[in-house]
Amino acid sequence: MAPDIDQIGKGFPRPVDERKNVIKRAMNQNVLVPDILSLMPAWPSNLQPDIDEINEEIDEWLKTVNVTEEKKNKHRAKGNYTLLTAVYYPFCKKEKMLALTQFLYWIFFWDDEIDTGGELTEDKEGTLQCCTETNKCIDDCLGPSPNYTPPLNSRGTVEMFYPILRDLRAGMGPVATERLRKELHDYVNGVANQQHVRQQHRLPNPWDHFRMRSDDVGVIPSITQNEYAMEFELPEWVRRHEAMEVIVQECTKLTTLLNEVLSLQKEFRVSQLENLVLLFMNEYSMSLHSAIDKVLDLIREHYAICAAAEARLPWSQYDEKFNADLREYVDGCHRLATGTAYWSYHCERYFKLAQVNERQEVLLDLSYE
C-alpha cells in the first residue's frame, strides 16, 4: 500500500514539503537503466563453480541459525548470497566457500535488525545495544585472546557470528585478522550512524550521503576476505600504499554508486528516500532521468580514477609471488563492484528478473505494488 504522502513527517512543514515533493515527482515513473557492468569494461565477471553444492550446505546450516523463519525465507528466496560469494571469490577452493557465504548471510541478517523495515528501525537505544553486542563478538573472535563462545541469551545474529568469525580467523594470518577486526567495527558503528541520519526530518545533502555510505558500507571486509579465500596475506605496508588506498576507496565508491541505482525501486517502494538518485532530485531539482544519469557519470569517473591508480602500485621487478598476490587483491577490489552488479541482475532482491532485458538493461518501476 502506498503511504499517504500528505501525512509524511506531519508537523514539520518544510521537511514535509521536501519529502512529499520528491515522492510526487518520482511517482509512477519508469526508467531504463543501462547495463552497469558495461561501465567497467576491463573488469570481468567469473563464477566459482560449486554454487549448487554450497547451496545445499547452506540449506542445512540455516536450520541451525537462530533467526526467524520469515527472515530466513525472505533472504533465501531473494538474496542468493551463494551466487554473490561465487562472483566475489570465483577462484577460491570449495572448502572456503561455506564460511564466506555464511558471512554474507550474516551481514544481511544483521543489517535487517537496523535497516528500514527491520526490528530496530526507530529504536536508537536498541540499535546501540545491538552494535555493542556485535562489537564484543568481533573482539572476542578476532582479538588477541580469542573466545568463540557466545554469551548466554545472545541475539541470533550475534550467536551465529561467533562460529563464522572462528572459521575465517582459522584461515587468515595475523595482519589480515587485525585488519578484518577493525573493518568490521567500522561497519557496525557506521550502520548505527546511517540509522541516525535516516531519522532526521530533513533529507541529507547527496554528497554527504555518498560520503557516509562509502565510508560505512559493509563491503570493505569482503575485500580483506580475499586473503582468506585465496590463501595469502598482503603486507600491511602494501595495503596502506597510496595507490592501494585509492583503489579500495574507489571500488567502495563504485559499489555504493551502482547499488544506489539498482536498489532505487526497492527503496522507493518502502519510502526510504535516502537514495542518491532521489537526493540529487531533491537538492538540484533534477528530473529522475537526469539524476540517474548523474550517478552513472559518477560511476564512469570513479572507474577511471581506480584504473589510473593501478599504474602507481608497488609492483616488484623480480618477485612474481608478490605480484600475483597484489594482482589478486586488486582484482578482489574490482569484484566488489562488478560482483555486486552481476548479483543484482541475477537475483530478485532489488527487482524482478523479468525487468532485465537481453541487453542487461533494467526497467525500474517507481510505483507501489
From TrEMBL:
<keyword id="KW-0456">Lyase</keyword>
<protein>
    <recommendedName>
        <fullName>Terpene synthase</fullName>
        <ecNumber>4.2.3.-</ecNumber>
    </recommendedName>
</protein>
<dbReference type="InterPro" id="IPR034686">
    <property type="entry name" value="Terpene_cyclase-like_2"/>
</dbReference>
<dbReference type="Pfam" id="PF19086">
    <property type="entry name" value="Terpene_syn_C_2"/>
</dbReference>
<dbReference type="GO" id="GO:0046872">
    <property type="term" value="F:metal ion binding"/>
</dbReference>
<dbReference type="InterPro" id="IPR008949">
    <property type="entry name" value="Isoprenoid_synthase_dom_sf"/>
</dbReference>
<comment type="similarity">
    <text>Belongs to the terpene synthase family.</text>
</comment>
<keyword id="KW-0460">Magnesium</keyword>
<dbReference type="GO" id="GO:0008299">
    <property type="term" value="P:isoprenoid biosynthetic process"/>
</dbReference>
<keyword id="KW-0479">Metal-binding</keyword>
<dbReference type="GO" id="GO:0010333">
    <property type="term" value="F:terpene synthase activity"/>
</dbReference>
